[in-house]
Amino acid sequence: MVNDKILRLALPSVVTNITVPLLGLVDTAVVGHMGRAEYIAAVAIGTTIFNMTYWLLGFLRMATTGITAQAFGAEARGLVGETLKGSLRWALGFAALLLVLQGPLLNFSLWLMKPNPEVAQYASEYFRVCIWGAPAMLSSYVLTGWFIGIQDTRTPMWMAILQNITNILMTLFFVYVLHLGVRGVALGTVVGLYCGCMFAAHRARREDREHRESVGERKQREQSKSVGGEASVRSVFSALSVHVFLFLRTLCLVAVTVYFTTAGSRLGGLYLDANALLMQFFIVFSYFTDGLANAAEALSGEYVGRRDREGLLRVVRQLFLWGFGLALVFTALYASCGSLFLSLLTNQQAVVQTAHAYLPWVVAIPLVAFCAFVWDGVYIGMTRTTHMFVSMFVSMVVFFALWLWLGPSNQALWLSFLCYLATRSLMQTVLFGRS
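Structure (tokenized):
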């Protein structure tokens, strides 16, 4: 029964995770055939700005999932609907902030990346169109989190597929029929985002209408309102706490990820290229384990909402069995086919040979990292975001401390990264035992 639930939730999430990066890849592929190298660089800069910005705001999805899953488990249908509305207000508020601050955000990003004037001009054109997709993008985060919380991972999958199909068709139309250039590429992305968002919003409205709160729940809410606004205030501050600690946790994650790339760049261009290839192994593994983590979010939140500790422990055990099995498969795959994958990723033999020297670190990643991914899902479902932040902060400190102690070498960089992943797993295991 539990295994069926895990598979039902995880498999569509894996498909969703694989399709999400296609939004940026489609833009890159189209500009790659537009005849100017500046277009490729401009879109690369634009997508980097949005990827980092939206990554920092990813807590909107995670917080929505945890709170919704607990309300779903408690069978508080009214609270499930209210959570969606409240989270959408958060998303639209942040989107409005991005629209207001788009000028400073663009200027700061261009100052940081320092492109040449022509690339900066095209990147600005791309950015100023794409920024209008922020309300749809952040609302899609919330809608995805809400659907995962009510244990529906198929709707986010279809939303992602619809976004990508629309993006491809509209980008080709705007670029090759209307000849809008870089702005057409950005406009195609924006139209795709709004189509996917409207589809998910329609499904959410129908789902909420079908599961309206019962009369008894409505009466209880009316009674609680008559007592005063204290419970509502506590709820607002509780949601705020969840968002804040998830944001701080994401900042730590971004700090490690960005510095890993920066450190590789300082070691030399060959190491930077090799590490970029090797990191693809980690990303592919994360697509699959994130699907498992999404199942963990929904199921752990459900059992917390039911106040069923035994059920929670049972589902956590099953999740880790699946995670361990997945890690074994990827370890065997990387150990046997890692060299082949590197050759498929590039034909630059110098880069392949350099990357091959560090392949054993990548082979070790699945078994070292799977616990961290599964625990992330469990903690999001439980809304134990303080524990997530503490474990990530300590892991970040371990990463930087080891890197500074071992000295500037690529071996030290990969060792620090694996110890960072192992520390996340260990810290979260210890904190769960105390929760």
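The chain has two domains: 2-227, 242-433. DSSP finds 18 helices and no strands in the chain.
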